[in-house]
Amino acid sequence: MEFGLKWLAFEITPRCNLNCIHCRTSASMNLEDRLSFEDITNIIEEISEQFKPVVVLTGGEPLLREDVFDIADFIHSKGMRVGLATNGTLIDEGLALKIKKHIDIVSLSLDGSTAEVHDDFRKVKGAFDATVRAANILRETSVEFIINSSFTKRNQSDIENTYRLAKFLGAKAWYMFMIVPTGRAEEIREELIDKENYKEILKWHFQMELNEKDILVRPTCAPEYYALVDIESKSKGIGFKRRTLKFSTGGAKGCVAGQLIAFIGFDGRVKPCSYFLRDAGNVLEDGFLNIWYNSDIFKKLRDFSSYNKKCASCRYINVCGGCRARADAYFGDYLAIDPYCFVEGGVYEGE
């Protein structure tokens, strides 16, 4: 596997107008921006010397930064594509036109098919209506968007309805997130989807994806899915061909943290992915390329033989890899087995 940065999440602000129960940053309007426009452009400049990743501007709520489109323009000037990860609540017709001019693709967060479910997750009444309105405005403005949906026990019964709503709204893709307990999600660890339900949800997703021809669908932070697809396809004699979104990492492997993707936090801290607990360094002090090439964490994530014995010897190590962030969150060791692993040597546990 060739390691090169293909996708970068850049958290340009910790400020947010919502108070989501699962926020990795514990974002709020009480926090302040740390990185200046000059800081951000210097970081992008350095990265462009080696890589041309898709850069996703995230937060917090990135639309709260007045210079968000200036940042996007600078990234474009370096030959990179720009995504915008927003909760959608601030988007109106005028802002949609600006987004169309400066952004390549938008991701909206939608955690339920009704206001009751979504607003309970986002802790702001009216959030659902605002996000649905944003989707409609973006579609009418011909702005491509995807929908990201995060699930716990409190909304897992609404997974299928949320997928159907994303499709109805005109999303180019629907990403189903299996939450890792970091940030505020640590406080709701007991209500995260358990291993048994996780497996059943991934089975449902596989069947759904077999029949889905209109939009791209993909479970996220669920690397075991890549093993499940192979096992299910072979056991049932099904031909399965994965489609790829033009703004994705290519879908070559389950966990690609520190291998094809990276995350830069609002204070300059660099992580292998946005859910990772540990910092690999600080871009303001160490430089991104130095961290990418020389960080001990990044090096170990690329050396699959350094993983726990079950992972390292598994036939799916190059396909799944286990969620390294989840392993760390549960066991304090990012090289440990993913606690949600239900595959060993290509055989389902308990079957």
TrEMBL record:
Signal peptide: none annotated. GO terms for molecular function: 4 iron, 4 sulfur cluster binding; catalytic activity; metal ion binding. Residues 2-211 form the Radical SAM core domain. Keywords: 4Fe-4S, Iron, Iron-sulfur, Metal-binding, S-adenosyl-L-methionine. Pfam families: Radical_SAM, SPASM. SMART domains: Elp3 (SM00729). Gene3D superfamilies: Aldolase class I. CDD domains: Radical_SAM, SPASM_MftC-like. This is Radical SAM domain protein.
